Amino acid sequence: MKDNILEIKDLSVGFNIEINNVEKFFYALNSINLSFEKNKIHALAGESGCGKSVLINTILKLLPKNSLIKSGEIIFNNQDILKLKNREFRKIRGNQISLIPQDPFMSLNPLYTIENQMLEVLEGNSAENIEKIKWALNEVKIKNIDNVLKSYPHELSGGMKQRVIIAMSLVQNSQLILADEPTTALDVSVSNSILNLLLDLKEKGKTIILITHDLSIVSNYCDTTTIMYLGDIVESADSSKLFKNPMHPYTNALLKALPTKRGERLENIKGQISPITDIISGCKFHPRCNMASDVCKMKKPFLCNYDCHKVSCWLYQKTSL
Ligand code: SF4
């Protein structure tokens, strides 16, 4: 049996949105069931607007005021964190579960030096804590550690800031790290070194959920891959399985949109992802799917398990209209 650090059960989340002076509720996540095995890197992938960030913000209890969790449980270390009061959850967020954000500048206070911010995490400037933050900065391969500690965030490059954030999760000894598009704002060479740091974190026993829209990095770095589309899981499997045999037309379309040979024309995915305020009948991908049939427009497919490879598509399910 797998040793899971996090289990999401039947999670449905949405937002109250005002349209023409009338407030209506729209789902952003629909009955999500996912489990994350310890000491692995798990990818959550899909285009912007597919629900990845809503899922991460639900785990971190950082949803905006107009949101509503309609159903579900999020079990972290055998307790449902959705049932915890904010005061209780603050002891977990930033300690046992930490976030590597897309823009590290947003997570660092521009008024404090890196040393002050890292010591604040450890609640005290004892010699032992200073040694600990130096160890963490060394672990994320920062050179000139003494200079970096005296620096303010604006004096560091994007890659250095991202390393500092990762070092913070090391000093906090977080078990679960949520990395939300951590390389989007970085150059390719810097982004590779940050992704290699995620592999180092895994070797140190951490579990990482990597949110990305870029499938090219997923196959190299992630043990499992889950593809989301408009708040649904459409495909989920071990990465080796999913990339060898992608089953869902959306996954195939994402893969075909990746650059392969130099000079080769890239394929676009037809149309655009719809806003959550558009209600789409049947399979939500059907307006963009080249394989869509009548049933796809009328009935929503279920997420079915085919030899540990889950996919939600009528191409693999028997149905009658
Ligand atoms: Fe395409 Fe139909 Fe499968 Fe949806 S259910 S992905 S529309 S073939």
Quick take:
This protein is an alpha/beta fold.
Write out key terms for the chains shown:
globular; 321 residues; 12 helices; 31% helix; 25% strand; binds iron/sulfur cluster; eight-stranded mixed beta sheet; alpha/beta
Structure characterization notes:
The protein has helices spanning 52-59, 86-89, 104-107, 114-122, 127-139, 145-150, 158-171, 188-203, 215-221, 239-244, 249-256, 294-298; strands spanning 4-19, 22-37, 41-45, 67-76, 79-80, 97-100, 176-180, 207-212, 224-229, 232-238, 304-305, 310-311. It is α/β, with parallel strands linked by helices and 321 residues long. The chain has a single domain, classed as Rossmann fold (3-Layer(aba) Sandwich), CATH 3.40.50. The chain has an 8-stranded mixed beta sheet with strand order 6-7-8-3-9-10-12-11, sandwiched between helices. Strands 2-1-4-5 form a 4-stranded antiparallel beta sheet, with helices on one face. The protein is globular. The mean pLDDT is 90. Bound molecules: iron/sulfur cluster. Residues 248-249, 283, 285-286, 289, 291-292, 296, 301, 313-315 line the site of iron/sulfur cluster. Iron/sulfur cluster (SF4) is lined by residues 248-249, 283, 285-286, 289, 291-292, 296, 301, 313-315.
Which small compounds were modeled alongside the protein? iron/sulfur cluster
Distance between the amino and carboxyl termini:
38 Å
CATH superfamily: P-loop containing nucleotide triphosphate hydrolases
CATH class: Alpha Beta
CATH architecture, please? 3-Layer(aba) Sandwich
**Roughly what percent helix?**
25-40%
CATH fold assignment: Rossmann fold
- Report Rg: 21 Å
Total number of helices: 12
Overall strand count: 12
Portion in beta strands: 25-35%
Neighbour order of strands in the largest sheet:
6-7-8-3-9-10-12-11
Unreliable stretches (pLDDT < 50, length at least 5) are: none
Globular, elongated, flat, extended or rod-shaped: what is the shape? Answer: globular
- Mean pLDDT over all positions: 90
- Output the helix-strand order: EEEHEEHEHHHHHEHEHEEHHHEE
Number of domains: 1
